[in-house]
Design brief:
Length: 113
């Protein structure tokens, strides 16, 4: 004689489920099936989607023509300005150096006044 599977009624969806697959409802008023308890129906571990492909390091660039600042994972010689399409791209260091030069130029300008 086969052993009868003990089932219980889920208090949420009223489905008959094996008692072993049930959990006590958060309300404590009864038992629910695993899906109703917000659990996966089976114990098996779902493969956790791992982001193995790490996005490349974003590099900061500034367009030498329109000064549009953007970041890209590509190398400086492989990027074009997303705004004007220029290939005259400055890296962050270059652009800050450029900004400093600009600053100096501006200062000189004002000094001349
Ligand atoms: Zn249920
Ligand atoms: Zn540009």
């Amino acid at each position: 004689m086969e052993q009868e599977e003990i089932t219980g009624k889920c208090i949420r969806c009223y489905k008959l489920v094996p008692i072993l697959e049930m959990v006590v409802d958060a309300s404590g008023k009864g038992m629910t099936c695993r899906p109703c308890a917000g659990l996966s129906p089976e114990e098996k571990k779902e493969p956790v989607p791992t982001k193995k492909k790490e996005p490349g390091k974003q590099l900061r660039y500034t367009c030498g023509d329109c000064k549009f600042a953007f970041s890209s994972v590509r190398q400086a010689n492989d990027v074009t300005c997303g705004y004007c399409g220029s290939r005259n791209i400055l890296t962050e260091r270059e652009s800050s150096a450029q900004a400093m030069l600009d600053d100096v130029a501006k200062r000189r300008f004002s000094d001349d006044e």
